[in-house]
Design a protein that fits this description.
Strand content: 15-25%
Order of helices and strands: HEHEHEHEHEHEHEHEH
Largest sheet: 8 strands, parallel, barrel
Number of strands: 8
CATH architecture: Alpha-Beta Barrel
Strand order of the largest sheet: 1-2-3-4-5-6-7-8
Mean pLDDT: 86
Number of helices: 9
């Protein structure tokens, strides 16, 4: 049920930075949960992900809010590939469907425009379209422009716990990571299975 696992609540609760794991299937979702993830991100409509775990699901794929709901997502990323009028339409449709909206920003200008258009609760500090290694620095550069009280998710290539800790100290609320040893990144020992 969309909205029952509120995405924004999952990444804002608790101490420290939340880890959002990029998964491709139900097995990946179960593994992410077991290793301490607080949310999932999907880039397509993988079967069984939302049924495999109670973690909230972020839709970060082509397609609009209806596709996100059909895939069992609780939130979706609105990407700046569309014109502003189309973004407003997608945002309004997502809100009507009960989805949390995550607004992707890659520059200070996009962040400013997003604040004017939507005054969003959640920002995705994205390096999409640039060198993957730049994502970490890009997130740190954009973060000071995110107003207090808003949530910031870093889409950053992190190589270990030290970088996750640096993002946390800077004030990032969550980081998207690949489906690898998530337990190392959250600072917990892997569970005994």
């Amino acid at each position: 049920m969309t909205g029952a696992r509120r995405f924004s609540q999952a990444i804002s609760e608790g101490d420290g930075i939340s880890v959002i794991v990029d998964v491709r299937d139900a097995d990946g979702a179960r593994t992410a949960l077991a290793q301490g993830a607080e949310a999932l991100v999907v880039r397509s409509a993988p079967a069984g992900v939302s049924e495999a775990t109670e973690l909230p699901v972020l839709w970060y794929a082509a397609g609009g809010p209806r596709e996100a709901v059909a895939a069992g997502a609780d939130a979706l990323v609105l990407m700046w590939d569309d014109d502003e009028d189309r973004l407003v339409e997608l945002h309004d449709e997502a809100v009507l469907l009960g989805l949390d909206c995550v607004i992707e920003v890659r520059t200070e200008e996009e962040l400013e425009t997003a604040l004017e258009l939507f005054d969003p609760e959640i920002f995705l500090l994205s390096a999409r379209g640039s060198d993957e290694e730049d994502g970490f620095e890009r997130a740190l550069e954009l973060l000071p422009d995110v107003p207090a009280g808003k949530l910031a998710i870093a889409e950053a290539h992190v190589t270990g716990r030290a970088q996750v800790a640096e993002l946390e100290r800077a004030g990032v609320d969550a980081v998207i990571v690949g489906a690898r040893d998530v337990a190392e990144l959250v600072g917990a020992a892997p569970p005994q299975v």
